């Protein structure tokens, strides 16, 4: 497992500068665009970077798999297919966590520079930015966990098409769930609306983390099963 | 000594039009085995089966005496694959990686990886560690793969169409490396190619596959030293075909080429018919396309 992870990291390292560059650009644009919204607007950049990192790294790694026959060559290395799958999930999680930490930290550090409302950088803002970034990453990771078995089963191009359809469907479901007429949305707004209790936010984030963990375990098991059965 | 690679009656239906059928072959220590056949004959599929990349419908694949097909336990596969080096027709590493970074990609997978050996090969092959994989020529890409395959103390090298598209100098360099690799008599090479001239002077055995089945499996000397091509008229060809067992004929506009298994015997029996040595190319062509009795 460690060997597979080290091998995977060699590719992730080459991806990091380009994904970080795109992330930084999006961070700056969103931070400037939403600066007038106060602390919630300021965390938009960090949330966007945290949300896009898992999907970008998943798609990029899957792209490399199908490039030049790397996937077939890798299957001849002394690494089991189960280890290949676990290493892939682990590297996506590790990369996403690093990007999220960096984005949240950047958001907290640069808050005074972008803030046009003259709000002081309090512990509450730091906490909210951190929680929002973590939740964004976890929700994005859940989408990755849903799509990842498709990539292992169908390869990059086919899975990309299927996962876009899957994400669109999930987007519609999320919008329907969060519409103002929906009781779930009303309940969420009542507990985590304009001035949320930090304890409630923490519990919500922990709930998302548990859900992500369950999805991770399921997704990893399914990916291992489909990848073992696949001819390479 | 046990065979380094052994396939016993493996079969696998790949599509409606192509199947591997009862493929049996062995690679003994110290041998370079040429694996020849037309494009789409089943060479790569056989190699995939041998390396456990595809599941088998029937038969068994053994590496270093142990079962290594897709159904073998993970631990056994891991151990056996660490003793195999692979060179493919295209450089398989992600294109944005630099030559120096490829070691970080492949090296950690092998418990017996030697950084010094890899650095030595990179230096010897004239590869620049800062060059990206996508900027490597075909020959350089092959050398990079070969450096990886030779840096973890492999017992068996498998080359799948590795010489395709290489210039004669690069092919000669590769063949010299292969000869050096098997020189100690403990290690072997399975060299799949449809450029049979590569095998004329290097292969110990030649195995031919066509349409998913093994057509012949012979010591190279039986082809290049023993067999012959008789250049006949129509009448001579008819007589030769009637007398010589296993002869194969290819008809041209004004002559007939007849493949005979023993050139000397044919020359003694038919001194008026010129009979040249066969190359693996001739042998392959006549075995696959020639008419039998």
* Secondary-structure element series of chain A: HHHHHHHH
Largest sheet of chain B: 6 strands, mixed
Counting DSSP H or I runs of 4 or more residues, the number of helices of chain A is 8
The amount of beta strand of chain B, in percent, is 25-35%
Biggest β-sheet: strands ordered side by side in the sheet of chain B: 6-7-8-3-9-10
Largest sheet of chain A: none
Tell me, briefly, the overall form of chain A: globular
Radius of gyration of chain B: 21 Å
Strand percent estimate of chain A: under 5%
Number of strands of chain A: 0
Query: Helix fraction of chain B?
Result: 25-40%
Q: Quick one: how many beta strands of chain B?
A: 14
Count the DSSP helices of chain B: 10
Spatial gap, N to C terminus of chain B: 39 Å
CATH superfamily of the largest domain in chain B: P-loop containing nucleotide triphosphate hydrolases
Structural class of chain A: mainly alpha
Please give the most extensive interface between any two protein chains, plus how many residues each contributes: A-B, 28 and 32 residues
What string, H for helix and E for strand, traces the elements of chain B in order? EEEHEEHEHHHEHEEEHEHEEHEH
Overall description:
The complex is a heterodimer of chains A (232) and B (293). In chain A, 85% of the residues lie in helices and 0% in strands. Chain A has 232 residues and is an all-alpha fold. Chain A has one domain (2-229). In chain A, helix 1 packs parallel to helix 4, helix 4 (81-114) runs antiparallel to helix 5 and helix 5 runs parallel beside helix 8 (198-229). The longest helix of chain A has 34 residues, at 81-114. In chain B, strands 6-7-8-3-9-10 form a 6-stranded mixed β-sheet, with helices on both faces. In chain B, strands 2-1-4-5 form a 4-stranded antiparallel β-sheet, with helices on one face. In chain B, strands 12-13-11-14 form a 4-stranded antiparallel β-sheet, sandwiched between helices. Chain B has helices at residues 43-50, 74-81, 99-106, 115-124, 138-149, 168-182, 220-226, 234-243, 263-269, 280-289; strands at residues 5-13, 19-27, 32-36, 58-63, 66-67, 84-87, 156-160, 188-193, 205-210, 213-219, 228-232, 248-251, 256-260, 275-277. Helices cover 32% and strands 26% of the residues of chain B. Chain B folds into 2 domains: 5-223, Rossmann fold (3-Layer(aba) Sandwich), CATH 3.40.50.300; 227-289. The mean pLDDT of chain B is 90. In chain B, strand 4 and strand 5 (66-67) form a beta hairpin. Chain B is of the alpha/beta class. Chain B has 10 helices and 14 strands. The interface between A and B is medium-sized, with 28 and 32 residues.
